[in-house]
Amino acid sequence: MARRLHEARASARPIEIALPEISSIEAAYTVQSQLIGLSGDDLKGWKVTALTPKDQQKFGGNRAVAGAVLGDFVYPSGSQLKLSSFVAPLVECEIAFVLGGDLPARSRPYSRSEVEAAIAAIVPVFEFPDSRVGPRAGDLAKLADMMNNGALVIGESMQDWRALDLTRIAIRLELDGRLVAEGSSARILGDPLLALLALTNAYPLPSPLRAGQIVTTGTCTDALPVQRGRYVASFSGLSDVEVRFIA
Predict the structure, then answer these.
(1) Alpha-carbon distance 14 to 8, whole Å?
(2) Residue 164 has pLDDT above 90, yes or no
(3) Which among 2, 130, 177, 190 is least surrounded, fewest beta carbons within 10 Å?
(4) Of the candidates 127, 147, 198, which has an alpha carbon nearest to the alpha carbon of residue 31?
(5) Beta strands in the chain (DSSP E)
């Protein structure tokens, strides 16, 4: 399964996965672990989802879930990407955290203050979800496919992030100078840091949370199909993020 998904990403061609092939979160994470190994263990971070009980039920669990973000698919703001490298990408504007300390599995839950102490910086990002599995595969197959992560484009980091009101970061997304979406950090549980807290208390994961990794917390804007052109996302209090898509 991991080899098939690895090849599907490399060729930008979807594959079909039958529902019984991935039957649990644990099975999906086993595939993710193999995918991380096939990439040379180049694990740069995580994307978090299933933050509400309703969404958690889709995966047959009661905790948040995460998709690995691999280094070959992390780009700085201003990058140029090819649509032909993706299957059917979407564009999402997100708030992400850079970890300055490890957050390993443990028996007692992490507190908010402990998670805050492990954060080195906050960064605005584009996430481009892109599914390599067919529509009949189901949510667990998408989780096995690194929760549909296609690419991450990262803006400038802000170390003095405590000066920000994380609950009120306004976001505007433009395509070739035309406004296409607006959103707010409040869309993520009212405060995106709660998504990181949920992840720290969602072990077992495919790999431990480590210093230097980036954790992106979910879209603050409606997900839109990617088109050719120049995308610029403005985040109040943070840097802009820019990417250009060509054929």
Answers:
(1) 6
(2) yes
(3) 177
(4) 147
(5) 43-49, 65-70, 74-76, 79-82, 90-99, 119-129, 149-154, 170-175, 178-184, 214-219, 224-225, 229-235, 241-246
